[in-house]
Write a structure and sequence with these properties.
The chain is of the alpha+beta class. It contains 9 helices and 10 strands.
Length: 237
């Protein structure tokens, strides 16, 4: 793993001697590890015999962890019962939110929501709260080539407006979406941090068909989300 940690981020191929020096291991030992990784397809050698990451390693690294443990699931089900909303847990994956869990099953914008589902981050409360954890520059890099698109008249479909909204979300600590992805769909989301203060997930509550007004989300649902986020952040994944 230390070997992959050296090779994966490197922009230049690394020699056996360099890798041996960095790991503090003999060349023969490092060579054996390299041969195994090469056979598995995670590294490649260039014309000079130096080592670099393969496409297979890149794909493996891009896959976020999707396992949600039973203690977290129990807490999320309790939250769904308390708030009478659909509860989701997700992470940011490029321009999308990758859903890890949802209770009860449902759909939005024609997408069946559950483990592995994706929705555009800028048009969802859960996505906006995840984007708010990034720097201004990182958000610009995501949307400069392809600006955020509109799904309804309420979607934030401008990078400057999105950056302004994310600044406010960052300040208040939660995000709201009212018909931005789909008419009649209201949602609120909060970040979930681990015990070390690192972002772990985003937690989302949603209701469709105007069953709950946006003001009620801010006064009733958001405090419940914040309490639950504090609880599940410290639970085993």
């Amino acid at each position: 793993m230390k070997l992959l940690a050296e090779i994966g981020p490197s922009s230049q191929p690394l020699t056996l001697a360099e890798l041996s020096r960095r790991l503090g291991l003999g060349k023969a030992t490092v060579r054996r590890f390299l041969l195994s990784l090469e056979e598995l397809g995670y590294i490649e050698r260039d014309a000079r015999g130096s080592y670099l990451a393969s496409a297979a390693l890149g794909k493996l690294a891009a896959r976020p962890a999707t396992r949600v443990g039973p203690a977290v699931v129990e807490a999320l089900r309790d939250l769904a019962a308390e708030t009478h909303t659909a509860i989701s847990l997700g992470v940011l994956n490029g321009r999308d939110v990758l859903y890890l869990w949802r209770e009860p099953p449902g759909s939005a914008a024609g997408v069946a929501l559950g483990e592995g589902a994706r929705l555009p981050a800028h048009a969802t409360a859960i996505g906006k709260v995840l984007l708010s954890q990034l720097t201004h520059t990182a958000v610009e890099e995501i949307y400069t080539a392809q600006p955020p698109g509109a799904f309804t008249p309420r979607t934030i479909a401008s990078l400057p407006l999105l950056l302004g909204a994310l600044q406010e979300i960052r300040r208040q600590g939660w995000a709201l979406s009212d018909g931005e992805l789909e008419e009649g769909l209201t949602a609120a989301a909060v970040p979930v941090y681990d015990r070390g203060g690192n972002l772990r997930w985003a937690l989302n509550a949603s209701s469709s068909g105007h069953r709950m007004a946006p003001a009620a989300f801010a006064t009733d649902v958001v405090p419940a989300l914040l309490r639950a986020a504090g609880t599940i952040g410290g639970l085993e994944a």
